[in-house]
């Protein structure tokens, strides 16, 4: 817990960052090492491509709030592993369209399974129904913050 002398928004930011860091580490640990040679950023990016469909590096960078150059490195690694493919945009030859391959789609479907199994079990065993409702509301707030342009 943070000290009471911090402004409430600073305390909330500190607590949230610590909790997210710990949960992220735990979720990563719930994947078998042989399943997870990719970085968290690569898995998240692949998941977005699978969910949202064909896209560009710039659109991915904007959606994930990273620099275009960083996203280009992430996408290049996914391509090197055969998880995404590149095609030229038929409407704008300067753009490259990125799509998930069948291998990428299959991977995206399997990697979260172990994590989700652990998370569902933890929620069921550790949280009251009221805490579960609060968690759903908190997730919505976190998504809203993530999607903002601020």
Q: Could you describe the 3D structure shown?
A:
67% of the residues lie in helices and 7% in strands. With 150 residues, it is mainly α. The chain has a single domain, classed as Arc Repressor Mutant, subunit A (Orthogonal Bundle). The protein has a two-stranded antiparallel ribbon. The radius of gyration is 18 Å and the shape is globular. The model has no long low-confidence stretch (mean pLDDT 88).
What's the topology here?
Elements: H1 8-29, H2 40-52, H3 57-64, H4 68-80, E1 84-88, E2 96-100, H5 102-126, H6 129-147
Antiparallel strand pairs: 1-2
Can you summarize this structure?
The chain has 6 helices and 2 strands, in the order ααααββαα. The chain has 150 residues and is mainly α.
Estimate the mean pLDDT confidence. 88
Rg result: 18 Å
CATH homologous superfamily title = Winged helix-like DNA-binding domain superfamily/Winged helix DNA-binding domain
SSE ordering: HHHHEEHH
Please tally the β strands and state the result: 2
CATH architecture: Orthogonal Bundle
Apparent shape: globular
Give the helix/strand class.
mainly alpha
- Secondary structure: helix percent: 55-70%
Span between N and C termini?
Answer: 26 Å
Largest sheet, if any?
A: 2 strands, antiparallel
Question: What is the domain total for the residues?
Answer: 1
Strand order of the largest sheet: 1-2
Our count of helices gives 6
List low-pLDDT spans.
none
The CATH topology, please?
Arc Repressor Mutant, subunit A
The CATH class assignment is Mainly Alpha
| Content of β-strand | 5-15%
Counting copies of identical and different chains, the oligomeric state is: single chain
């Amino acid at each position: 817990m943070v000290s009471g002398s911090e402004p409430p928004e600073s305390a909330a930011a500190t607590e949230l960052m610590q909790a997210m860091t710990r949960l992220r580490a735990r979720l990563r640990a719930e994947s078998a090492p042989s399943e997870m040679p990719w970085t968290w950023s690569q898995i998240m990016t692949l998941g977005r491509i699978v969910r949202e469909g064909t896209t560009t590096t710039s659109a991915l960078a904007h959606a994930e709030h990273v620099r275009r150059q960083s996203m280009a490195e992430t996408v290049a690694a996914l391509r090197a592993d055969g998880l995404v493919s590149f095609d030229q945009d038929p409407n704008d030859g300067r753009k490259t369209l990125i799509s998930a391959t069948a291998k990428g789609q299959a991977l995206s479907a399997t990697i979260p399974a172990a994590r989700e199994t652990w998370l569902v079990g933890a929620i069921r065993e550790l949280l009251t129904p009221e805490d579960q409702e609060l968690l759903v509301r908190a997730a919505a707030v976190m998504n809203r913050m993530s999607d903002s342009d601020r």
